[in-house]
């Protein structure tokens, strides 16, 4: 806290220092807001109402689940959180031995998401939270010489929650027809997913955030 206070002691005028000043003030505000919920003397004010994988408190073997349990607790507090991101664990860049590593990593993701949704239900937050899971890049459809797959165009995204629309909402890639680079053909522009979430869940015009938002289409993601 003393470091934030030193940076934020005087409001600068130049754009660069002003940005640092603003960030320091924001960080200081977040630290003060969260201070009452810091774990001390084995007392956890953010203890969940359900059991997360990795132990009674979700600690130990599944860091992804542990991060989600703290997120669920903070969503239940009057902190004004509207958007949060949690990175999944593991090495999803499966160039080698994909059958083993992918099963293990997806297992941890599945366990964490299941506990998170159960937690939200227990806290009465299920109608307020929509989770989107996505990959930043995909894999090629053909196995390489190391029992893995290399970078490709095939990715995945889905929404999860009490108000998520169920079912397969876009065409599934056809394993019999590839693009000129022998990759899976993309069936929907990822920007259409983001634009749909912005409008249907966040109540924000997609054109305020995404360039050419009007050209990428929409998919009904919220029931």
Compact summary:
The chain has 223 residues and is mainly alpha-helical.
Q: Any overview of this molecule?
A:
This protein is mainly alpha-helical and 223 residues long. The chain has two domains: 1-37; 38-215, no CATH class. The protein has five helices and four strands; from the N terminus they run ααααββββα. Helix 3 runs parallel beside helix 4 (98-123). The protein is globular.
The percent range for helix content is 25-40%
Q: How do the SSEs run, as a string of H and E?
A: HHHHEEEEH
Structural class: mainly alpha
Taking pLDDT < 50 over at least 5 consecutive residues as the criterion, the unreliable ranges are none
How many domains, as an integer?
A: 2
Report mean pLDDT, rounded to a whole number: 87
Separation of termini? 44 Å
Secondary-structure map with pairings?
Elements: H1 2-7, H2 15-34, H3 63-75, H4 98-123, E1 131-134, E2 138-139, E3 151-152, E4 157-160, H5 190-200
Antiparallel strand pairs: 1-4, 2-3
Give structural attributes.
about 220 residues; mainly alpha; two-stranded antiparallel sheet; 5 helices; 4 strands; globular
């Amino acid at each position: 806290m003393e470091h934030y206070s030193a940076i934020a002691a005087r409001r600068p005028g130049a754009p660069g220092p002003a940005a640092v000043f603003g960030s320091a003030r924001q960080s200081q505000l977040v630290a003060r807001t969260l201070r009452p919920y810091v774990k001390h003397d084995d007392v956890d004010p953010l203890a969940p109402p359900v059991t997360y994988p990795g132990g009674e408190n979700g600690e130990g073997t599944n860091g992804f689940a542990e991060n989600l349990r703290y997120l669920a607790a903070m969503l239940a507090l009057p902190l004004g959180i509207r958007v949060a991101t949690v990175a999944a664990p593991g090495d999803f860049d499966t160039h080698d031995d994909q059958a083993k590593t992918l099963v293990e990593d997806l297992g941890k993701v599945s366990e964490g998401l299941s506990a998170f949704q159960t937690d939200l239900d227990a806290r009465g937050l299920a109608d307020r939270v929509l989770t989107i899971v996505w990959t930043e890049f995909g894999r090629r459809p053909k196995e390489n010489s190391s029992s893995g797959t290399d970078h490709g165009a095939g990715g995945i995204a889905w929404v999860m929650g009490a108000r998520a629309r169920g079912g397969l909402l876009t065409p599934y890639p056809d394993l019999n027809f590839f693009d000129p680079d022998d990759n899976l053909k993309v069936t929907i522009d990822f920007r259409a997913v983001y634009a749909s979430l912005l409008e249907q869940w966040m109540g924000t015009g997609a054109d305020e955030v995404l360039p050419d938002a009007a050209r990428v289409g929409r998919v009904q993601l919220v029931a």
